[in-house]
Amino acid sequence: MLDTVVPLIVKSLTYEEKRGACSVGSNVRDAACYVCWSFARAYEPKELEPYVTQISSALLITAVFDRNVNCRRAASAAFQENVGRQGTFPHGIDILTAADYFAVGSISNCYLNITVFIASFSEYTEAMIDHLIAMKINHWDSVIRELATKALHNLTPQAADYMATTVLPKLLPMAVGIDLHGRHGAILACAEITHALYKLGLQTNRAVVDMISSECVDALKNIHQKLNDRKQYRGFAGELMRPAVCFLIEKLSLSKMPFKKDPVITGWQWLIDDTIKTLHPGVKDSTVVSLVSALSALCDEFYQAEPGQADLQIQDVLVSQYIEGLKSPQMLIRCGSALALGCLPRFMIHGKVKQILEGLLQMCTVSQNEEKCTEARRDAVKAISQVCLKVGVCAHGSPDSALCSENVAEVYGVLLHCMTDYTRDSRGDVGAWVREAAMTSIMDVTLLVAVSAPEILLPDLVKRMMCSLAQQAAEKIDRYRAHAGNVFLCLLHSKEPAVPHIPHQEELLRIFPFETTTSLNWSAPSQAFQYITQLLGLPQYQYHTLLGLTVSVGGITESTVHFSSQSLFEYLRGIQENNAALTQFGDTLLSIFRDNIRNDMVSIPFLGMLNQMLANSCFEIFATQENHQFCVDILDLCKEFKKSKVIAKLRISISVFCGLIQFQGEVRKRVLAQLLMLLCHPFPVIRKTTAGQMYEMLLTYDDVIDPEVLDDVMTLLSDANWESDLETVRTHRNQLCDWLKVSQPRKITKRGEAKCSEAFA
C-alpha cells in the first residue's frame, strides 16, 4: 500500500485550504507528520528506501516553511525519528543539528537561515525553491509572502542558473496576473531574485542582463506600466501594489538595470510622487520605508548627469516639489515630503541645502506651535539630521552647500526646541516620538561637527544640549529615559571626536565612568536614578535634572516613583547640614514651580514630589526658622490653585498645605487659612478630603493648635458631614476658625455676578 499512501501523505504535509480571511489544514499537516513518524517505527529501511527522497524533502519543507509552529516542530521530530531509525535520509545528522525542535520555533530563523544551510545539499535545493514558488509567495498571510521572497533571495546563490532560467520566467506572468496575493508575492520575488543575481554577478564581473534573458528584462521593465494601465494601484489592491512596486524600483535601481533615460523612469517617479500624495492614516510604516528607499535608489542610479553631479532640471523639480509638500495641510504628505528630502543623495541636494533646511526647520517650529502633525515633526527632525550628515560640515562654507557657522545655531535651536515637545492626544505622550528623534539627530550632528569643525560648537549650545539630555534621562518613560541616557554617555565619553565645552566634564566622568556605557541599564529605575540624581550637585545641571525628576517622583508608576524618590531623598539627606546647598536646591525648586505653574503636566507631579519631600522632612532646617522665605514663596504659588477645577490638582494641593504646617511663624496661620477656605469649596469631594487630611495633620503635628480645643476640633472634623449643603458646612467651618484663632472669611460678590466667593480680610 506504500505506493498509494506515500503520495497522499506527501500531499497532506503541505495541505492548506483558505477559508475567508484565514486557512484550515494545520490539523491535517500535523497528522501527516505523525504518520511519517510512525513509518520510521513500522518499516524496515529497505522497505522505505524507494520513498526516502519524497518523504525527506516533504518533511523538511514542512519543518522550515510551515506557518504553524506546532507543525514545524512535528515535522522536525518526524525527520529526526526517520534519521535515527531508518538511517537513509540524505545528510540527516547534519540537517538535524541546524533544524532541531528549538531552532524551528522561530519562523524568521527558519526562512532566512536554516533554509540556506539545507539548500547547500543539492537533494533539497530545487524542491524547496519550487515549494516557495508554488505555495508561499501567493500565501494569504503577507508575512509569509515577504519571508518567502527573502528566502528566495538567500537561496539564489545556491541555484543561480535555475533561478535565472526557470524561476524568474515563471514569476513574471504571475507579477501581472489576476490573483492579488500571487501578484504581490511575485513582484517582491522578482525584485529579490534580480538583486541577488546582480550581487552574484559582481563576484564574476557579469552584469545582471547577461544572466537573464532579454524577455525577462523587458517584462521586469513593463510591470509598472501594465499595473497602471489596468488601474491596479487603486483601492485595496493599491495598498499592496504600491509598496511592492516601490520595492521593485529600489532593487532594479540597485541592480543597475540599463533603463537610463527610458520612459519607464518617468513612470516610476510618478508612482513614488503619487504614493506620497495619497498617504493616509491607515498606511503601514513599511510602505513609507519602501517609498523612501525606492526614491533614494532611483536618484542614485538614474538622475546623475555625470558622476557626482545631478541633472539640474530634475533636481529643481524634485526639491521644489517636496519643499512645497512640507506646507501641505495633510499631515502624512508632510511626513512623506520630509522623508523624501532626507533620503535624497548628496548630489541632489547640493546647492539647495539652505532652501531644504529652511523648509524643514519651519515645519518643526510652526507645527509645534499648532500642537498637531506630531509625526510630521518627527520625520522632519530625522530629515534634518540626514541632510546634515550628507552635506557635511565646513566652518566657513556656504549655507547652501554645508553645515557651517552661519546655520549651525539655527539647526541646534530647532533640535533643542523639539526636545521640549510634550504634545499629548488620545494616544498619550506623542511628543515623545519627536523628542526621541531629536535626541538621535542631535547626537549624530554633534559627532559630525566635532570631527570636522569643533570650533563652531559654541559653549552655550553644548550646555543646552547636555542639560536637555540630562532632563530626558531623569524622566519617567523607560524607553526614552534609556535613549537619552545612552546619548548622554555617548557624547560624554566620545574621544575621537571629543565633544568640546561639556559643562562639569571632570565631575561627570567621575559620576559616569567609562564602564557605565555598557553596564548601566537606563531602562531599569533601580539603576538609572541613583546615577542621575548625582547631577543635582552640579549647578549647571541642577534645574534640568530636577525638572526631569519632577515627573518621575510625582508620577503614578510605582517602581519609577519608588526608586526616583529614594535616590532624590538620599541626595537631600546628604546636604541637610549644608545650608547653602539646600537653599540653592530650594531656589531651583521654586524656579521650576514658577516656570510651570500653568502647565498641569509638570505642576501636578511637582506638587506630588513636594508633598513627599515635606512628608520626609527634607526641609527641616527651614522649618525651624520663623516665616522662612522658601515656605512663603511655596504658599504664595500654591494659592494659585484654589480656583482650579482639576480634582487631582486640588487634592494634591491640600496635601502640600498640610505638609507646610510644619513651618513656624505667621506662615502657619496663612496655611490654616487656606485649608479652612477649602473646607467650603464648591466641590463636596474637596471639602471631605480637606477635613480628612486636616484631621491627620493635627494627629501628626500636635503643636499646631491650643491643646484645650484640640479634642473639639478633631471631633468636628471627623463627625461633621462635609458633603452637605454649603450653608451648613460654612457654620462648621466658622466654628473651626474661632477655635483656631483665624479670622472668618468674608463673602465677596463680584460686580455683575450672582455667585460669590470667599476671602480672608
TrEMBL record:
Highest rank taxon of the organism: Eukaryota
Tubulin-folding cofactor D C-terminal domain boundaries: 464-649
Cellular component, GO annotation: lateral plasma membrane
Keywords: Chaperone
The keyword Translocase belongs to this UniProt entry's keyword annotation: no
InterPro entries from the UniProt entry: ARM-like, ARM-type_fold, ARM_TBCD_2nd, TBCD, TBCD_C
Pfam family, one: TFCD_C
Domain Tubulin-folding cofactor D ARM repeats: from-to ranges: 2-93
GO molecular function: beta-tubulin binding; GTPase activator activity
GO BP annotations listed: adherens junction assembly; bicellular tight junction assembly; microtubule cytoskeleton organization; post-chaperonin tubulin folding pathway; tubulin complex assembly
Family: Belongs to the TBCD family.
PANTHER family given in the database record: BETA-TUBULIN COFACTOR D, TUBULIN-SPECIFIC CHAPERONE D
Protein name: Tubulin-specific chaperone D
UniProt organism field: Pogonophryne albipinna
